[in-house]
Amino acid sequence: MPDPAAADPAPLSTTIEAVLVSPNEDTQVAPRAEAIRVDNLHKSFGSLEVLKGVSLTAKQGDVVAIIGGSGSGKSTMLRCINFLETPNSGEIKIAGEKIAMRSDGRPADRRQIERIRTRLAMVFQQFNLWTHRTLLENVIEVPVHVLKTPRSEAIIRARELLARVGLGDKADAFPAFLSGGQQQRAAIARALAVDPSVMLFDEPTSALDPELVGEVLTVIRGLASEGRTMLLVTHEMKFAREVANHVVYLFEGLIEEQGPPSEVFGNPKSERLKQFLSSVT
Known about the structure:
This protein is an alpha/beta fold. It is about 35% helix and about 25% strand. The chain has 11 helices and 10 strands. The strands form 2 sheets. The chain has a 6-stranded mixed β-sheet with strand order 6-7-8-3-9-10, sandwiched between helices. Strands 2-1-4-5 form a 4-stranded antiparallel β-sheet, covered by helices on one side. α5 (about 135-145) crosses α6, α5 (about 135-145) packs parallel to α7 and α6 packs across α7.
């Protein structure tokens, strides 16, 4: 197989078009298993209660868009799901496996959390790339040092992923020499390197200049078309309506309304949701 990085770089639009494939037919025929289940999740920071009993289910292949105003608890919910934040109480299941939690919400089995995290890939608002390492080195870090993938195998896979997000010619570049959109696409390639069962996106375009937003959304749209399970916190309402099959509106730590995009955006029931959509559109 030729080295993608050695070939002339394809235009981003051409590269991404190759990613757009039809959804997996099996997910349309067979009953889909639960990928994530969150029940009655609570989280406080001191006296500030951010999550007040949130419950959410995503099945395999679902793209769930999570919307809401600043401070509504969107990012906190994502961070609790993979235990970057410790919930105060509630229950979390990943692919049917219940995460063992103590009475105060802390994980009871740290090794379980480490194993679960290899199935949950998170893409942050800030790109969180290691600035002293090339894009290739960023992408192979977890496969080599955490998953113990042979380095030669990890490099081949990393080059494929970088080409997939339109960065095949940037494998040896350092993050400081790339645009914000390129860095975020590299962060998505890094997330894909662990072959996650669920991808968590925390406002992946919020730190980008407007002209760079589209290239990142194109990559995410391609992943959604593959049938990947995703939880997507976003303020891009048009994108959420087009890509998600379920939308959740959070208000002050509670789910105010949820449902298919056609209902949430086209026929909102909650007055708060109506006001929110009016303010962002």
